[in-house]
Amino acid sequence: MAIIDITIVPIGKDTGMSEEVAEIEKVLNKYTDKIDVQLTPMSTLIEGDIKDLLAVIEEIHEVPFTRGAQRVSTNIRIDDRRDKEGKQMKRKIESVQNKM
């Protein structure tokens, strides 16, 4: 199970990005049967099988272009852990909370 931290930034548009983020979240919500999504103030976390995640990334990278952007910068950070089964986002948070 992999976790991807992704930030998609249309370049050359307004400084506000909430409309683009909302459209990206709508696309992500179509895949909740395959991936888990967690919106944060600075990025979005998606968790699932790496093949599903990469396919979703390709689709959401296109969203700003469909809204008129001429250039898009997408930053991706992947944590692909294969020594443990199951969902990791929740487990990682619980692990830290248990130590507090």
Automatic annotation (TrEMBL):
Query: GO cellular component annotations, sorted alphabetically?
Result: cytosol
Q: Which InterPro entries does the protein's record reference?
A: MTH1187/YkoF-like (IPR029756), Thiamine_BP (IPR002767), UPF0045_domain (IPR051614)
Instruction: Give any Pfam family that matches.
Output: Thiamine_BP
The highest taxon in the source lineage is: Bacteria
Thiamine-binding protein domain location: 5-97
- Which family is this protein grouped under? Belongs to the UPF0045 family.
- Report what the protein is called: Uncharacterized protein (TIGR00106 family)
Q: Which organism is it from?
A: Sinobaca qinghaiensis
